[in-house]
Specification:
The complex is a heterodimer of chains A (112) and B (118). In chain A, 0% of the residues lie in helices and 52% in strands. Chain A is mainly β and 112 residues long. The termini of chain A are far apart. Chain B has 118 residues and is an all-beta fold. Chain B has no helices and twelve strands. Chain B has strands spanning 3-5, 10-14, 19-21, 24-26, 32-39, 46-52, 60-61, 64-69, 74-79, 88-98, 103-108, 112-117. Classes of the chains: A mainly beta (112), B mainly beta (118).
C-alpha cells in the first residue's frame, strides 16, 4: 500500500459528461501529480500541484482541470468527455523534491 | 526534448533465470534521476529502483540492479533469479529539474511486458 488513495476505482460515463477524480496524498506529501495511461501505453504527465499551487503542466487538455485543496487532497476534473478519454488515471504524491513518487491504484475511466 | 525509449515491447524469462530490460534516453542535461517502475496486473505502479545521474555506482535493490551508462544514455534493468511475481509491465522513467521554471519533469517510456515462464 503506497499510502496514496484514489477514488473512485472505476468510473463509467457517457460522452459529453463531466467527472471528478479524487486523490488523497500520503501523509506529509505536499506534491500531487496526475498521469493518464491509455490502453497499453506509457504514462503521460498531465499536471503537478505543490502545496496548493500549480507547479508544472504537461500534456493536459483544456477540457481537463485540476486543483489541490488546503488539506492537500487533489481533484482532476474532466469535462466534455470523449471516447478517447477512456484511460487509467493515476495520481502520485511526493515530498516535493521530486525525488520519489508514490502512486495510487488509479481510477479507470470508461467513456461510452 | 527529453525522450525515453524502451525498444523491447515484450520479454520472456524462465523462472530462476536472469533477464535484462533495456532503456535509453535522450537529454542534454547532466543532473537527473532515472527510475524503473513495475506495473503488475493490479495496475498499481510500484517503484523498483532509482539511479541518480551524478552517481557512478550502479543502484541495486535485492534481485534488481541497473547498468547505468551515462555517456551512452543507457539505463538497463537486470532481474536476477526471476520469480513468477516479477511478471509485469516495466516502465523506465526520467526526471529532471528546471531551475528556470522551478519545476520537475517526469517522462516515462512505453513499457516492456515481462513474462515469467514456470
Amino acid at each position: 500500500d503506497s499510502g496514496v488513495t484514489q477514488t473512485p476505482k472505476h468510473l463509467i460515463t457517457a460522452t459529453g459528461q463531466r467527472v471528478t477524480l479524487r486523490c488523497s496524498p500520503r501523509s506529509g506529501d505536499l506534491s500531487v501529480y496526475w498521469y493518464q495511461q491509455s490502453l497499453d501505453q506509457g504514462l503521460q504527465f498531465l499536471i503537478q500541484y505543490y502545496n496548493g499551487e500549480e507547479r508544472a503542466k504537461g500534456n493536459i487538455l483544456e477540457r481537463f482541470s485540476a486543483q489541490q485543496f488546503p488539506d492537500l487532497h487533489s481533484e482532476l476534473n474532466l469535462s466534455s468527455l470523449e471516447l478517447g478519454d477512456s484511460a487509467l488515471y493515476f495520481c502520485a504524491s511526493g515530498t516535493g523534491d521530486g525525488n520519489i513518487q508514490y502512486f495510487g491504484a488509479g481510477t479507470r475511466l470508461s467513456v461510452l | 526534448a527529453q525522450t525515453v525509449t524502451q525498444s523491447q515491447p515484450e520479454m520472456s524469462v524462465q523462472e530462476a533465470e536472469t533477464v535484462t530490460l533495456s532503456c535509453t534516453y535522450d537529454t542534454s542535461e547532466s543532473d537527473y534521476y532515472l527510475f524503473w517502475y513495475k506495473q503488475p496486473p493490479s495496475r498499481q505502479m510500484i517503484l523498483v529502483i532509482r539511479q541518480e545521474a551524478y552517481k557512478q555506482q550502479n543502484a541495486t535493490e535485492n534481485r534488481f540492479s541497473v547498468n547505468f551508462q551515462k555517456a551512452a544514455k543507457s539505463f538497463s534493468l537486470k532481474i536476477s533469479d526471476s520469480q513468477l511475481g516479477d511478471a509485469a509491465m516495466y516502465f523506465c522513467a526520467y526526471r529532471t529539474y528546471s531551475y528556470t521554471s522551478g519545476t520537475y519533469k517526469y517522462i516515462f517510456g512505453t513499457g516492456t511486458r515481462l513474462k515469467v515462464l514456470a
